[in-house]
Specification:
By secondary structure, the chain is of the alpha+beta class. 72% of the residues lie in helices and 6% in strands. The strands form seven sheets. The chain has a seven-stranded mixed sheet with strand order 6-7-21-8-17-11-12, with helices on both faces. A five-stranded antiparallel sheet has the order 4-3-2-1-5. The chain has a three-stranded antiparallel sheet with strand order 18-19-20. The radius of gyration is 54 Å and the shape is extended. It starts with 23 loop residues before the first helix and ends in a 6-residue tail after the last helix.
Length: 1966
């Protein structure tokens, strides 16, 4: 299997950065992308799903867009979505996108996937896209990159999720979970393996094991726990993974892997839970798929299994695993076999266990070799090879034939005997497949258990775990069945879990940042679909119910589902699948609508197994594992095993526990129920963890890297819930920016305002405050409307899309600035060009002027003279002289040293020459010989001297020039020296400043030392507190020992419970003895019991149907309650009008029906005429064939022609009679129309009155409903407030932890400080506040101790009460025993009645119908009551035991805490004397915060008790509501029965008066039930009066309680004012002496005690008030329910009245119809006398008319029902009636026209008949025979017609009598209705008063909550001050570092200056 063998390191790991980080090339490509914030958009595309384009224009609701490919299309406005700015491209977290739409999500994922970035965040999700390629991102180098890093510090990766879970587990000591879902082939299994490998490395127990090594197969030493955890993957994948169409290594089961860690974060073990193994894959695979890998591994024989498992080398020898593919390219079966075998060894499987697993796997393959043959219902083995091999492998029998026999002839238990039933071939094949699947499933479960047992290390302590859930995602296939339903249901639950978790995190973030946010639990969005599955009568419960029934089938299951949910539940709809046309229903999931096919669901749910074969397999001798996996299966036991053991206390009575009945049914667990239990356990376990979510995505179906199928990806994003999570983000504030980032990016929008706001920040000034002020200034200038953004404490929050708007504004601002800069640059260049052109112009002017002057001066002599003199003037060459002088000075400076050297040489020569001259003079004086020579020499010397003097002169000139130069340089040097002196002064000033800074530094160092000493002192205090904490832990251990003693007491109480159960068993034994006495009587009763059973079954079925119909009625009534109320009011007031309207409609419809009947008669006459024509044609053909044979035929023809003539005459007469009846009908119709017009005018007048009254009643009803809604809203708000208070408590605890962390950080940062500014004083105050916080914790512990004491006292009182209740229950048990004896006597009386029943069976049956059933139900109720009381007694005993244990634990804990706290108080008192003034100040602050905390704690406990009271009252009201609903159901059932009987009566009336006796009987029943209903109404009125009295009492109690609460609240406010004054006094006396502080402390203690007593009293008063409030609510609810009952009764009475009125109209219409039938029958009799065949036809027509009349009657009843449903549209109905009247007039006119047309047709037919008379004479013979038959029929009809009028008249009289009775009953109903309305008004008035009282109480509660909020605000302010001081501290540190840097720069500058100064001050040569 790919990736099974995981090696973390092999050589040097490659760089993973290109696959994790967005490179610079990608960023450059993104920056070059074209983007227009106002025009760029996404639009739908048929190939790419979405495509980017630019908006060209917008016309109304249409948008014209130009796509990137150049095409232009028009789209609807709602289909065009916005594009995110380029800065969000390749975004790592898609929840940060400013435009959260589907196209943006898809584009971001696609862009990252193309750039080989496969991991992306989406809020809480980590989306992993399958790369279809190996990337080096799972190496040890990558692990090191993510180790100890936070999620936001590294790019998205699955290791970041794993590291976050591991870090959270270590820090919070809370269990973690990682949920990995996705479709097949998405990479779930691979990601799971990577996560497990990461945990194995991180949690490695051996420190040296930092690099994984390949385990030596020959090594026998025990493998480490990490290796075992990793090596579970090969085993689980071999037995649970298979090849599918999409994936070569697809996990066909879900798994939850728990990795356990100890308290040091080291791995301590692991375990695996599996879900929904696909067992059907063992016996069937599609052509492109493969079964589980293990079967193909075994056939490789890499481990030799020829002899052990008896397997061949050919996989095709085993049909069940060779249906599809047998090899997979990406999997080396031989290598994977070795890896799996090695994994078994590492996991600690023994050699025998491992080969037993191989044997069982091979047996699954060999089972498929069993072959059968046969015809009909008998099967036989085709050959015995498979059975023989199987027997040799497992050793279950002497021969292999036994297994065939068990399959073909299984045993079944019938009664008390075992019977063999022969199976056909199909049944045997199905049974073989089920055995194979069952064996493999049990083997898989065994492997999971073995892996779990090996992974658990008992020597290591397991503290926390991290669970990894690998389960299939949401599935929508072409054919969806039971497996898809289960998987989709799991994903519904997981999505609900995610929504709830995400909602909680968002809420915590908003609460932390102080965002105003209304809580919305998005987890409730999926509640409807989940309820459809798991609530009673949902899909899964109905499947369970149908599975239990043996006669149930897929069709009954489908019908039951549709009857229960179709049209009633919004998530249950008709099947709408395009791929599966046979789908039966569909469910609307969060990810889409899925159509399911229920074929085979019941069998899959039952998972049947042949117990006979299982019994044989349990006898296997050669494979112990088969016996082990079937150890929990009962098999088929023998008869001896059914007998009870000897000495059983029940004697000879057999305890029937058969294998297939009691034992199996007792443990009967279907697949669905097992799955639901697993799912519930999984969800409950996940709710206790902190989850992380990973969603795996399949990018394409062709397994190509870098290719994205957008439609497939969007489908998976929908199914995985990613888009659902984005939907939740969009409803909140998805975009959030830190204030610093916001200021740096968006301050450009309002730079002046931001700068001004930053300057206006109040002290203490921090960077955070500046950032917040600048952010406010920017947002104030932008002026966004509504709640588009909100300010948090550290961030600013934006709605979806607002950040994009900010980016647009910023882009606009940047564009403006760039345009302005471009304009300035362009202006500069334009000015420059302009200046150049201007200079050019001016130069031309100057040149022209000079040329002009030159031409003038050329002729001017003075000018020429001046030009001649000018070159010799110095004034014109001043610049030349200046430059020459500068050059000379430079030359002199450069050659100064050379000149000085030449000067020195010349001086030396001069000195030497002088010496020589002196020597010569001496020599001259001494002698004269060389005089001439000397004179010559002298001459030469003179010459030389002259030359030298000339040279000296030249040198002197040079020296003079150099001296001048030196003087100039000295002057310059003086200037530089003056500058140097000034610089020296500045340097000295800098040095003095530096000295000051150093002094200040020394001072700050001293202050830091002092602060360090104080911090050490604070640390010592913290250490002391930690020691006290240790003592508390020791006391906890003592308390646990006491808990153990209390558990022993609980065990003692359990023993008492067992004794009671034994006494209960004895009572049951006595009951059985009584049953024995009844044995003889039961023999006599068997015949009657047979009938009883039948009737009971029918009653049960009827009751079940009643329950179902009742539920349906409840839903419908809830939906239509508002509409029906209005309709009922209009019905009562407009009943008479409706009856008149209905009568008129009936008359009109009767006239229409008569017209239609006449038309039908004409049509029939036409048909008869046509038949005669056809007969005549036939006769003519016969005549042509036979010819003119005899004269007799001619005579017959003449007779027939005469008869035809007679028939024509009769037809004419009939037409005349019909025309006369039509004229009469027209007259009646006109008269009725005139009457209807008058009645309509009256109706319009009455309707106006009715509408006024209806509006008044509707307003009253709306007020009542609004009051109810307000009450419910108040209750929900109170519950929400309770939850908010609990959440605030958790937040406060979190803040305490954060403050502690901040303290540690501050201590660490203090060590690094060297200089600190004046803000250190504020930091010192911060330290004091932290110490106060610790003391506050200590005081909170004291308050908790006192609360525990009070709870212990209350629990002791409750314990005493509960003991009294237990004694009462024991007494009730004794009473129930006596009641059982009485029941025994009563049953003896019943037996005597049974002896009498044999005398008269009919009398018994009637008596049974009236009395027996009721009596039996009473007995069953008594039994149920006894069982319920026993159960309640047991529950109370258990609850008492638990409460006793908890009370004693709390008491011991309280004692230990009290001792510890007393010792702590003494220690702190001694410390307080040492600490002196600082300690006293701390105590002051401690007392203040302690008082505040006590107030907060007391009010929190009060709110919690109030919430508990509300919840208890809610349950009480709910139970009362359920009782009233049950009563309402019974009344509705009775009303329904009445309605059904009325319908039956109507049907009997419609049958033509054939059952007058049944009509009278039903009428009598109706009267009886009417009387019962009236008595029920009277009882309801009496109950209403009682409830009114209760309400009055409740109002009195409420007034008293309200006065008491007002008094208590006033006292508490006075006390709060007094405490505030004391606090102020304490603050003023902070500088007072020790004695004053001691007195203040004593005063505070005394006030504290007083407060505690007052708070206790207030809590008691609040409890009483809450109870009174709940009782008042209960009374209100009762009155509402009674009101609804009265309304329901009124509604039923109105329905009955309307039905009676309908019955009256029916009877009148039927009487009229009967009159018409009489007239028609007379006409038919006359016609029968005239003709033969026409009479028969007319008789048939009359009968058809009667049936048509009945059909029209039924259609009219349906139309009336529709009219009743549309009564609220009375005006429209009246208009329709007027229109119908006009239509009837038009119909009458049309009827006249039709009559004339028919007369014309008659005349034409008569002419045609005359033409055919000659041909008709030949039919006289046949007509004569028909004439005889017609005469006989006419005589019979005459007799019947003579009797019909008398019957109809009698029937009309009875109907009139019934009419009078119904009118009287309706008058009585009207009277009852007026009484009910009067009663409703009284109840509404009472409800208003109750609402006022409730409003007052809610006001009081709100005041208390406001005080709580004020205290919380004070705490938050203190926390903000602490945060500000921290910021100041950090700012001071930054300032100090900046000062150090400045000082270093100054020193460097000084050094540089000194060096330059020294170089310049060195003297040069003179």
């Amino acid at each position: 299997m790919p990736g099974t063998k995981i090696v973390l390191t092999q050589g040097e790991d490659p760089d993973p950065a290109p696959f994790l980080f967005v490179s610079a090339e990608i960023k450059k490509k993104i920056a070059e992308k074209k983007y227009d914030p106002k025009r760029s958009c996404y639009v739908p595309h048929p190939e790419e799903k979405f495509m980017e384009g630019l908006i060209q224009e917008t016309n109304g609701g249409k948008v014209k867009v130009q796509l990137l490919n150049g095409e232009t299309h028009e789209f609807k406005q709602e289909l065009v979505t916005q594009v995110n700015p380029p800065k969000y491209d390749c975004c790592e977290d898609m929840s940060n996108l400013t435009y959260l739409n589907d196209a943006s999500v898809l584009f971001n994922l696609k862009q990252r996937y193309v750039e080989r970035l496969i991991y992306t965040y989406s809020g809480l999700f980590c989306i992993a896209v399958n790369p279809y390629k190996r990337f080096p991102i799972y190496t040890m180098r990558t692990v090191g990159l993510y180790r100890t890093k936070r999620r936001n510090e590294v790019p998205p990766h699955i290791f970041a999720i794993a590291e976050g879970a591991y870090h959270a587990m270590c820090m919070k000591s809370k269990n973690q979970s990682i949920l990995i879902t996705g479709e097949s082939g998405a990479g779930k299994t691979e990601n799971t393996k990577k996560v497990i490998t990461y945990f194995a490395f991180v949690g490695s127990s051996a420190p040296a094991k930092k690099q994984a090594a390949v385990v030596d197969t020959g090594a026998k030493k025990k493998a480490s726990l990490e290796d075992q955890v990793v090596q579970t993957n090969p085993v689980m994948e071999a037995f649970g993974n298979a090849k599918t169409v999409r994936n070569d290594n697809s996990s066909r089961f879900g798994k939850f892997i728990r990795v356990w860690f100890n308290n040091m974060g080291r791995m301590a073990g692991g375990d695996i839970e599996t879900y929904l193994l696909e067992k059907s894959r063992v016996t069937y695979q599609s052509p492109c798929e493969r079964s589980y890998h293990i079967f193909y591994f075994l056939c490789t024989h890499k481990v030799d299994l020829h002899e052990v498992c008896l397997l061949s080398d050919n996989i095709y020898d085993y049909p069940c695993v060779s249906m599809g593919k047998v090899t997979v390219e990406s999997i080396d079966d031989a290598e994977e076999m070795m890896i799996m075998d090695e994994a078994f060894d590492i996991l600690g499987f023994t050699h025998e266990e491992k080969f037993d697993v191989y044997k069982v796997s091979a047996s699954c393959m060999i089972f498929s070799k069993l072959e059968y043959q046969g015809m009909g219902e008998v099967a036989s083995p085709k050959n015995l090879d498979g059975g023989t091999i199987l027997n040799d492998l497992l050793g279950f029998a002497n021969s292999g034939e036994e297994i065939y026999d068990r399959f073909i002839n299984p045993k079944f238990k019938v009664g008390t005997e075992w019977v063999n039933k022969t199976q056909n071939v199909n049944s045997v094949v199905v049974a073989t497949g089920s055995i194979i699947k069952n064996i493999f499933g049990r083997l898989f479960r065994y492997l999971v258990d073995m892996c779990n047992s090996t992974l658990l290390d008992p020597t290591m302590k397991k503290v926390n775990f991290i669970g990894v859930l690998d389960i299939a995602g949401f599935e929508i296939f072409e054919f969806n069945t039971f497996e898809q339903l289960c998987i989709n249901f799991v994903n519904e639950k997981l999505q609900q879990f995610f929504n709830h978790h995400m909602f909680v995190l968002e809420q915590e973030e908003y609460m932390r940042e102080g965002i105003q946010w209304v809580s919305v639990d998005f987890g409730m969005d999926l509640a409807a679909c989940i309820e459809l599955f798991e609530k009673p009568m949902g899909v899964l419960p109905i499947l369970e119910e149908e599975t239990i029934y043996p006669k149930a089938s897929d069709q009954t299951f489908e019908m039951k589902l549709k009857a229960q949910h179709l049209g009633k539940h919004n998530n249950f709809v008709k099947a709408c699948s395009k791929t599966d046309k046979d789908a039966h229903f569909a469910v609307v999931h969060y990810a889409g609508t899925v159509s399911y096919n229920v074929t085979g669901w019941l069998d899959k749910n039952r998972d049947p197994v042949n117990d006979t074969v299982v019994d044989l397999l349990k006898k296997c001798a050669k494979c112990k594992l088969v016996c082990e996996i079937y150890a929990d299966h009962p098999g088929q036991t023998k008869e001896e095993e059914d007998l009870p053991p000897p000495g059983h206390r029940r004697g000879k009575k057999r305890v029937v526990v058969k294998s297939k009945t009691a034992a199996k049914m007792a443990n009967f667990k279907t697949v669905c129920s097992y799955f639901r239990d697993q799912l519930n356990n999984l969800i409950n376990m996940l709710m206790t963890t902190e989850p992380s979510f990973i969603r795996c995505i399949v990018p394409n179906n062709v397994k190509t890297p870098g290719l994205v199928d957008p439609f497939l990806v969007m489908h998976q994003l929908t199914c995985n819930g990613v888009l659902e999570g984005i939907r939740i983000c969009r409803k909140g504030f998805p975009n959030r920016v830190i204030y610093l980032d916001f200021r740096t990016r968006y301050a450009i929008l309002a730079p002046k305002e931001a700068h001004k706001a930053m300057k206006m920040v109040k002290r203490p000034v921090t960077e955070e405050k500046k950032n917040i002020a600048a952010t406010h200034a920017v947002m104030d200038k932008i002026q966004l409307v509504g709640d588009k953004f909100q300010y948090g404490h550290t961030k600013i929050f934006f709605r979806a899309g607002i950040l994009g708007l900010m980016e647009e504004l910023r882009d606009d601002r940047v564009n403006d600035l760039v345009a302005m800069l471009q304009g300035a640059i362009r202006a500069y260049y334009a000015r420059r060009i302009y200046k150049k052109l201007w200079d050019h112009k001016m130069g031309l002017l100057v040149a022209q002027r000079t040329i002009r002057n030159y031409m003038i001066g050329k002729k001017w002599l003075w000018w020429t003279l001046w030009l001649a003199l000018k070159p010799g003037l110095k004034s014109g060459r001043f610049e030349e002289f200046k430059t020459d002088l500068a050059n000379k000075t430079l030359y002199a400076q450069e050659h100064l040293e050379e000149v000085i050297k030449e000067k020195e040489d010349a001086e030396k020569k001069h000195a030497r020459l002088i010496v020589e001259v002196d020597e010569i003079r001496v020599s001259l004086a001494g002698g004269t010989n060389a005089k001439q020579d000397l004179l010559d020499k002298i001459a030469k010397l003179d010459d030389i001297r002259g030359g030298l003097q000339k040279e000296i002169q030249i040198l002197n000139q040079r020296i003079a020039a150099e001296n001048e130069n030196i003087e100039n340089l000295n002057e310059a040097l003086k200037k530089t020296e003056s500058n140097q002196s000034s610089l020296g002064r500045e340097m000295r000033e800098c040095e003095s400043r530096l000295a000051q800074v150093q002094d200040e530094k020394a001072d700050k160092d001293a202050q830091i030392k002092q602060m360090k000493e104080e911090c050490l002192h604070q640390e010592e205090l913290i250490n002391k507190l930690n020691k006290e904490k240790k003592t508390i832990c020791e006391s906890k251990l003592k308390e646990e020992e006491q808990i153990q003693s209390y558990e022993d007491k609980c065990n003692h109480l359990n023993k008492l419970k067992i004794r009671l159960e034994k006494s209960l068993d004895e009572v049951e034994d006595s009951w059985e003895r009584e049953k024995k006495h009844k044995g003889d009587i039961e023999k006599m009763k068997r015949q009657v019991e047979g009938n009883l059973k039948l009737t009971q079954e029918t009653v049960v079925d009827l009751e079940r149907n009643k329950i179902e119909l009742g539920q349906v009625l409840q839903r419908k009534e809830k939906e239509n309650s508002s509409l029906m109320g209005k309709i009922e009011d209009e019905q009562t007031l407009g009943g008479k009008l409706n009856t008149q309207i209905k009568e008129l409609q009936a008359r009109l419809e009767e006239l229409d029906e008569e017209l239609e009947a006449e038309r039908q008669a004409r049509a029939r006459a036409d048909k008869g005429r046509g038949t005669l024509r056809r007969e005549l044609d036939e006769l003519n053909e016969k005549l042509e064939e036979t010819g003119s044979n005899t004269a007799a035929q001619i005579a017959l023809n003449t007779r027939r022609e005469e008869e035809l003539a007679k028939l024509k005459m009769e037809l004419d007469e009939a037409n005349i009679t019909h025309e006369s009846t039509l004229a009469m009908l027209r007259q009646k119709h006109n008269a009725s129309i005139s009457e209807m017009g008058e009645q309509i005018d009256q109706l319009n007048k009455q309707k106006a009155k009715v509408e006024k009254e209806r509006n008044g009643v509707a307003l009253e009803l709306e007020e009542v409903q609004n009051q109810l809604a307000n009450d419910q809203n108040e209750r929900s708000s109170l519950e929400k407030q309770g939850k908010m208070i609990q959440q605030q408590i958790y937040d406060n605890q979190g803040r305490l932890e954060e403050l502690q962390r901040a303290l540690h950080e501050a201590d660490g940062s203090k060590r690094k400080l060297t200089v600190e500014n004046c803000d250190l004083v504020h930091q010192f105050e911060e330290a004091e506040r932290n110490a106060a916080q610790f003391s506050k914790d200590r005081t909170s512990l004291t308050t908790q101790l006192e609360d525990a004491k009070r709870l212990a006292d209350a629990e002791t009182r409750e314990r005493i009460n509960l003991l009294g209740k237990m004694r009462n229950l024991q007494h009730e048990l004794e009473v129930m025993k006596e009641h059982l004896d009485e029941e025994y006597d009563a049953k003896q009386e019943v037996e005597r009645q049974l002896s009498k029943a044999f005398a008269d069976i009919q009398l018994w049956k009637t008596r049974y119908e009236t009395e027996g059933v009721a009596r039996a139900e009473e007995i069953e109720r008594d039994k149920a009551k006894v069982a319920g009381r026993l159960a309640e007694a047991e529950d109370t005993i258990q609850s008492l035991q638990e409460k006793i244990a908890s009370l004693e634990k709390a008491k011991a804990r309280a004692k230990a805490e009290l001792d510890d706290l007393t010792s702590e108080c003494e220690r702190h008192n001694t410390n307080a004397t040492i600490i002196e003034k600082r300690g006293r100040n701390f105590d002051k602050v401690v007392n203040e915060w302690r008082l505040k905390a006590e107030d907060l704690q007391n009010e929190i406990t009060a709110s919690q008790t109030e919430c508990r009271n509300f919840s208890s009252e809610y349950f009480r009201i709910k139970s009362a509501n359920e009782e009233i609903l049950e009563h309402l159901d019974t009344v509705k059932r009775e009303n329904k029965n009445l309605a059904e009987e009325i319908k039956d009566l109507l049907d009997q009336l419609g049958e033509g008066g054939r059952s007058m006796h049944e009509l009278d009987k039903s009428r009598r029943k109706l009267e009886v039930e009417k009387e019962e209903l009236q008595t029920g109404l009277e009882e309801a009125e009496a109950a209403l009066e009682q409830e009114e009295n209760k309400v009055l009492r409740a109002q009195l109690e409420m007034s008293q309680v309200r006065q008491e609460i007002d008094r208590r609240i006033q006292e508490k406010e006075e006390e709060f004012e007094h405490s505030r004054k004391n606090h102020q006094r304490a603050l003023d006396s902070m500088q007072a002496s020790l004695e004053a502080e001691a007195r203040a402390k004593e005063e505070a203690l005394r006030i504290k005690k007083k407060y505690e007593s007052d708070i206790n009293e207030m809590e008691i008063a609040l409890d009483h008030a809450n109870k009174a409030h709940s009782e008042a609510k209960k009374a209100i609810k009762r009155t509402h329910m009674q009101l609804s009952d009265v309304n329901a009764a009124i509604e039923e009475e109105r329905k009955i009245k309307n039905e009676v009125l309908e019955q009256l109209g029916l009877t009148e219409r039927k009487a009229n119809a009967m009159g018409g039938e009489l007239e028609e029958s007379k006409a038919l009799l006359e016609a029968a006398i005239r003709g033969q065949r026409q009479v028969e036809q007319e008789l048939i027509d009359t009968r058809e008319q009667v049936s048509d009349m009945n059909g029209s009657n039924t259609s009219l009843t349906n139309a009336k029902r529709k009219l009743e449903n549309d009564i609220h549209q009375m005006q429209a109905d009246l208009d329709n009636m007027l229109a119908s009247c006009k239509n009837s007039e038009e119909k009458a006119k049309k009827a006249m026209v039709d009559a004339g047309r028919l007369a014309d047709e008659l005349r034409s037919e008569q002419d045609h008949a005359a033409a055919q008379e000659k041909a008709a004479r030949t039919t006289e013979v046949s007509l004569s025979e028909m004439q005889k038959k017609a005469e006989e029929a006419s005589f019979a009809m005459a007799r019947g017609a003579a009797q019909m009028p008398a019957k109809l008249e009698a029937r009309a009289r009875d109907i009139e009598l019934e009419l009078n009775r119904t009118i009287q009953q309706t008058d009585e109903v009207h009277k009852n209705i007026t009484k009910g309305e009067r009663r409703v008004k009284e109840l509404i008035f009472q409800q208003e008063e109750n609402k006022k009282n409730q409003d007052r109480i809610t006001d009081l509660v709100e005041k208390l909550q406001q005080k709580i909020k004020s205290y919380k605000k004070q705490i938050e302010e203190a926390e903000e001050i602490a945060a500000i001081n921290l910021a100041k501290y950090r700012k001071a540190q930054q300032d100090f570092e900046e000062a150090e840097e400045r000082s270093k720069l100054c020193e460097a500058n000084i050094q540089k200056y000194r060096s330059t100064r020294g170089a310049s001050m060195t003297p040069g040569p003179v």
